[in-house]
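Annex B, item 7. Sequence and structure tokens for protein A, then protein B.
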Amino acid sequence: MPKIAYLCQGQLFLLGDNGVPVEVTSQFGRDFEERQSKQRQVNGWKEHSGVWGNMGFTPPQFSQWQEAAGGQRLIRFLGVDRGPAPGQLSYLLGLGRVTGLFSYETGADLESRLFHRNDFQAADLTQHGKLGTYAMSVAQSDATKHIVVADPDGRFPRDITAGDTVDEQPRWTDDSARRLVYQSASLMRNQAGFAVGLGPYSIQSVDLDRQAIDEVLASDDYDYLQPHPRPDGSLYFVRRPYKMRPDRTTVWTDMQDILYFPFRLVRAVFYFLNFFSMMFSGRPLRTAGGPERPDGPDTRLVMLWGQMIDTRKKMFDRSSKDESAGLVPRDWELVHRTKEGQETVLQTGILAYNVDDAGSVVSTDGRRIFLQQLGGDAQELAKDRFIERVVLLGDAAESRPASGTVTASETAHAS
């Protein structure tokens, strides 16, 4: 079984034959955390000045915000893809407002920083299998996202798409040409110019040599996501029904809202007053049990390419009705389309997938990872909390340890 890399809630893991995930940590990220910690220690006196600081306390109106920020994870893996050589992968690392592009050799445990910059919100990383050229989706200040390409050493990033669109999930073709495909949706804006929705996702193709963009697949009824072209002219993609608005509520749900309205109104007024009490006196109005504190980040509602997914509802459905239910609905289908236009549904309920040169497909429904060899059935390999992306790696990754945590050692720097 080949090695598999996957992202789970901003963390990067390697999965091998034994099915035990091994977390990969960035040495550059660890150094960044240490610098941030030292900076907070040096500037800590500013937070403890004045009357409260002389007594060794933080002013009550700021203490709860500082405690909440203390549990925030600044370092997140934003994208990952396999490199041109076996056992090589590349990833985007988010460090607060800074985003960096890194290359990592799994066999030698070697991390190379290619570049990093401020206010560069990149994701959906992909690397050309032969040329080594990078492509990624970069968010703009006007709510659009455009495809950006960079040289194999990470230099000279440049936009190749434009317009009032959301362009994501680029994927290079497997030949030596400089062509890639990506998913694209038009933004819907109100009269004030604010983005209020997305049109259906279509699949577009861009040729960097001809400087031309062509439409590959589009429909008013479906979203076409995560395109992956093959050398034989076929195409893999995820298809789902297009929904412009959230699902309508039932009559029973509307009746519950009316029944609970007085209680919710009283609770809202209480928490409004409790907020001012915490701000000005540092004391909550509710004393029983102490103030509520979340155990971690709120991941109940997740926006996936324009559709809101209620993860808590999915967990309820899984435990009570369908043990095989994933994070996304069953109508999210992984489809293989031949050059002649014949389509075959390979799997259902798929959130993300990846295809290697041999035609093996690794996929995830958000909680489980599946591997489907060419001509075989999908087999479940592992489970995790919220799997965002999966990637098949080459054979060089087999030299990695069986369990534990791998720390990527940074040996090259280039800004």
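Protein B:
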Amino acid sequence: MKATIAEIKEVRPIEGRDRIQEALVLGSWVITTRDYTVGTVGVYFSTEGIIHESFLKENNLFKDASFNKDQKTSGFFEDNGRVKTLKFGKGRSDGFFAKLETLKAYVDISKLKVGDDVSKIGDFELCTRYIKQDVLKDAKNPTPKQKKFALFLEHSDTENFWYNSKRIPTGAKIYITEKLHGTSGRYARLPLYEKGFFANLKRKVQKLLGLDYHKYMVGSRRVVLKNNEDGFHGKNDFRFQVLDDLGGFPKNLIIYGEIVGNVNGRPIMSHSLSELPKEYKNKFGDTVTYNYGAGKGHKFYVYRITEYDEVKDTYRDYTYAETEGLCKLNGWDMPLKLTEFVYNGDVNWLEAKVKELTENEKNLSESYTDPKTILEGVVVRIEVERKTTFLKSKSFVFKLAEGLETVANVEEIS
């Protein structure tokens, strides 16, 4: 969830609606009134979050006018301030956009420029991530980070492509793959983190004797796991089955991926399609499950491999070619690659290509991997001089299917 200074790139009318229109901001269509024009600069709030009540009150945006500064004026935000993905007849709203003047109570707006992140202004948090109460209730307190697993790096958060597209350098090698909807998994074969004289002595003796001091490790996005523990999806045994399926992989690697399909007798991820237009329900049914060829079981798709250098105490990501090569050698699955190219610096072309692949509108946003389910979106992998960056772009239909109740699943908050 971010609040970003942005400008409108395009506007288009909505059939049957005289007072409102669609406006294109940071790759997303939002609903605005007709006085917003191309070039209008304002603040864009992405979906998956809540806007601070002070901002909503100051700008009379609450639906319940009694919460507003002017109690004779009402807006359209519910009491909790959530930014939702919505359909307005034949229009769509994927976020919220307001004119720059709405920020004047919090910051000198004359100093703001397009691209500025205003999610936090000083100590004031203008917006925060929305987390469902049932997810908060079900999520256990995260296990304290055990020092001995310090080398086992967590999943890094993937930034939004639309906030970062203009920062991609010319000449970068870009791979665009399908983004799969499941639960995060990470696996490693690393030394335990041990310091001190005796720990160093033990390590030297192990090396001299040719003993393998590397340990296999299993984790969700944030937590290092033990077998037979319970997690958000029930028993965590399936995560250790994935480790068995990976087999003996090389030392000093961390393998990141997505576990999809079914575990413990139920789908890892599914959605009701009640909020989608009937053409989607006709195509996919009333409920969609994100199976991706897993059948009644589950599959693991590898999307990132990181190598740890014990001597230098540094990490490096495998290139896509290296990742693909190791996966082919071991028979591991990877998310479907949709295209690859060397970036020529044309950001308009790049954004159009990412938008086209993200939405797959000609096929009603069906998954490229599994036509029985909807497309979550794509991942844009950028490689520049051995440095790898991952950016995500989620489809409008997927966000709508999330029930307008997006977001942080338990792996992201634990």
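Comment on protein B: The chain has ten helices and 28 strands.
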